[in-house]
Design goal:
Elements lengths: L1 E6 L3 E5 L14 H8 L12 E2 L1 E4 L16 E3 L5 E7 L9 E8 L15 H5 L1 E2 L8 E7 H5 L5 E11 L6 E11 L8
Parallel strand pairs: 3-11, 5-11
Antiparallel strand pairs: 1-2, 4-6, 6-9, 7-10, 8-9, 10-11
Length: 188
């Protein structure tokens, strides 16, 4: 058994391997690790220091009277961007986020800015998407980069990052999303 860092300071996989080759610390996915090591028999993902809730493809309703959108579905054939909301809570303030460290799968946010109330770009990305009275941070990611190599069907998609405080702390959250489209792969 050996420890392999998948996302620096955010997710660690413990893997039993058929061979003992070295793996680069910037490996992007469990599949890449399995390929690099020639086989995998077990994967355990460690919890981040601060677990957060995310909302992939949140219903950004202008009018609160509009009904919510149905289940989260993303097409691997879609270009453009994928919207992901980091949901603020009593234990996680979105102003703590260092946007430059955030990744959604292998993608970084399309827009980089400081989470400072004086920065208009930050203010433009704040919403209360789940209507709980807490500010949420809405980020956009390149769809092709974020959805590459996904199988069709239900998939657990994760976002990770670091806080922008004196001593950065890792945070992360996942949401199950239905992946649709044509890619030649079979999914569950």
């Amino acid at each position: 058994m050996r420890r392999i860092t998948l996302f620096p300071l955010a997710l660690v996989a413990v893997m039993a391997c058929e061979q003992s080759s070295m793996v680069s610390p910037d490996v992007a996915s469990v599949g890449d690790v399995a390929d690099a090591l020639g086989g995998i028999t077990a994967v355990l993902i460690a919890e981040p220091t601060i677990p957060i809730d995310i909302d992939v493809k949140p219903a950004l309703r202008e009018d609160p009277e509009d009904p919510p959108v149905g289940e989260n579905t993303l097409s691997i054939n879609k270009g453009g961007s994928v919207t992901v909301a980091l949901l603020g809570s009593a234990s996680f303030e979105v102003s703590w986020v260092d946007v430059s460290t955030v990744t959604f799968r292998a993608a970084s946010p399309l827009h980089q800015f400081d989470t400072d109330p004086e920065v208009q770009a930050y203010l433009d990305h704040l919403r209360d998407v789940n209507e709980d009275g807490q500010e949420d941070l809405v980020l956009h990611f390149d769809a092709r980069q974020a959805l590459q190599d996904l199988e069709l069907g239900l998939q657990l998609l994760c976002l990770t990052g670091l806080t922008d405080v004196e001593e950065p702390v890792d945070f992360g959250g996942c949401e199950e999303v239905k992946i649709t489209g044509r890619n030649g792969k079979k999914g569950g």
